[in-house]
Amino acid sequence: MFRKMTMAAILGLSLAGPTMAMAAGAPSGATGSTAEAPAAPPAFMSPAWAQDLCTAWNNSPTLTEKLAGSWAKNSGSKGYKVMEVSDSDMKTTPPVQLEVALKGGKAECIYGGPIKVTKLNYNYDYKMWATTHNWRHMGSPMVAMMWGDLKFKGPKMEAMENMGPFGAFLKLVKDVPATVPAS
Question: Could you tell me the pLDDT band of residue 23, with boundaries at 50, 70 and 90?
Fold first, then answer.
């Protein structure tokens, strides 16, 4: 009892009620609380994670504004660019896609999820892949491509002209919350 009282005093908790049960290490079911534990983030490279990546894209001024010029306009007759992203360590996990279109003067992600476009046109679409470790520790896109940490197909000159925004995209890949497999 003395240990519980000391712990409660240190944590600034009262001795009564559910908070004491939590401080004393009682199972969460014993607290009487109806609050649920926060949901785990989606699996890395899952369709749900791709949807979160799409949302993060739209919240990035670097991507939405700096890619709104010739990059977003180079989309062929379909009116949007496709970015297929995959993890080469995750052999059983299919790639995911983002679709980016010019909307209201901004390069907006209009779709993030499972593969919809199966035939990419590498004059304007991109396919990128790396290992789990390399995705999570990616630095400069130029260095990553030079050392082979990031592989891609797509319009190389266009990519070279947009290294700043491309770096912001690679940062999003590692910053969007995900349950990442052990590497």
Answer: very low
Spatial distance between the Cα atoms of 172 and 57, rounded to a whole number of angstroms? 7
**Alpha carbons 142 and 3: distance in angstroms, whole number:** 57
C-alpha 49 chain-centroid distance: 6
Which of 61, 167, 45, 149 has the alpha carbon at shortest distance from 105? Answer: 61
Q: pLDDT tens across 128-172, in order?
A: 999 999 898 887 777 777 778 889 999 999 998 998 899 999 999
Q: 179 has which bridge partners?
A: 43
DSSP string of 100-132, one letter each residue? EEEETTEEEEEEEEE----S--TTT-EEEEE-H
Provide DSSP, 64-87: HHHTTTHHHH--GGGTSEEEEEEE
Instruction: Give this prediction's pTM.
Output: 0.77
Q: Residue 60: count other Cβ atoms within 10 Å of its Cβ.
A: 19
How far, in Å, CA of 146 to CA of 30, rounded? 55
Q: Which among 41, 35, 76 is positioned nearest to 55, based on CA atoms? A: 41
